[in-house]
């Protein structure tokens, strides 16, 4: 009989202070809107099946099974499936921590764990625990998250970064998430003050402090960004795009678009070599 004894030593590893907020499993069934949006927390997205692309603002990155996308707080993002290869993935929402890569100071990170099945198994175990909600499920998920984070840090030499110091106020984040999601609706400052119960002047001042734009300027920016994506990827008419992005009229949309980009929406579409169905 052989026997090897391995003593466990204490190691000086800084406490991560991470907290699991949510876990989900998603599959593209052709009904996604692929709208750029943000969160006040970090997201970890693990691709299980399918192929597509992940958008960080205007940056487009191809993704495939085994890819782990790390989305830092307040970063605009969305995902798109390739034709005939619908994406399936896990997503974790975690608070208190983000990651830094010396080679990528922007904070957004894409790495691959195709050859490490333990990463996928950690996601599966967390989802199982949350779905069954047995005794100790929340605690087990929290410990599994810590194991996952340590494996990510160890494999890709990332640096954990506390994020509590860069958080927006709760009210400003509420406004930002509301505008990101509901930009197509009729929104005024009164809408936002009713949402947050803040004084209108203080609300505008606080939001501008954190984003560099007033709420209405930020709203129009989101509408224009979405309009650009629709112009590039779809054959909707200008009137349809104006309506889908929340502008009060086609003429106001064209005027605002021209002021922002120095050309009309039709001219913008022509520069992206899409089919031309309307006259400028």
Automatic annotation (TrEMBL):
Q: Where is the HTH araC/xylS-type domain?
A: 173-271
Q: What are the alphabetically sorted keywords of the record?
A: DNA-binding, Transcription, Transcription regulation
Instruction: Enumerate the PROSITE patterns for this protein.
Output: HTH_ARAC_FAMILY_1 (PS00041), HTH_ARAC_FAMILY_2 (PS01124)
- Keyword Plastid present in the record's keywords: the answer is no
Query: Which InterPro entries does the protein's record reference?
Result: AraC-bd (IPR003313), Homeodomain-like_sf (IPR009057), HTH-like (IPR037923), HTH_AraC (IPR018060), HTH_AraC-typ_CS (IPR018062), RmlC-like_jellyroll (IPR014710), Tscrpt_reg_AraC-type_HTH (IPR020449)
* Domain of life of the source: Bacteria
The protein's name in its UniProt record: AraC family transcriptional regulator
